[in-house]
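Researcher: Please predict.
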Amino acid sequence: MLYDEGGTGVPILLLHGLMGSARTWTDQLPWLREYGHVYTVDAAGHGRVPPAELSTEAFVADLAELTSAITEPMVIVGHSMGAIHGWVFAATHPARVRALVVEDIAPDFTGRTAAHWAELIHSWPQPFPDEHAVLDYFGPVAGRYFLRAFTAAPDGFRLHGEVDTFRAISEEWGTRDFWTEWKSLTMPTLLIEGERTITPPGQMRTMAEVHPDAEYAWVEGAGHLVHDERPAEYRELVSGFLARVLG
């Protein structure tokens, strides 16, 4: 599902991370509208039917179809899974992408497995009876993230997709890398890495080194959810980048 979040000018497309949703960008929408016409999406498998093949290419094809009515080149702002989908989309459809923001994800997780992570999610006490239960379980930052992603029902809050789907999406990243797609890109790009990153050491810095027009930023004290954990620093970085690439 594609959502028109308002604003005017250059289209800015926000792509959420694994187990996120369009709503997880809520706090960033007001100031991003100052730079363009903002859109969000719910990725396939996140409150929507997943593609038959859970490959990155299938998600990118779905994204291309969702955004087919946006004819002007977009700025794509992606977090984690959304950032991978964003740069593979840009590699596949370079004329449709004006600039990229990549938050806390890297090209090569080869050999890693999501088995332990999936077991942990299966152990979550779903449904969570109310908002306080979600915040108590995950903490204030991740709790707000999941409250905006979970499905709310009369019996409480629960995941908006299947754990096996989320695991399969993540497991694909352990079978391949995305360096070829990354190295094909030339559009302006901002790379943002948290101090407590989930990415393999050094990869995001290397991404900047091999890209002809990339900026790299390391955010002290931030984990994987940089835009939620350090919103002021995130806004400063992205605003400065958009001011440069959009004039």
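Model: The mean pLDDT is 96.
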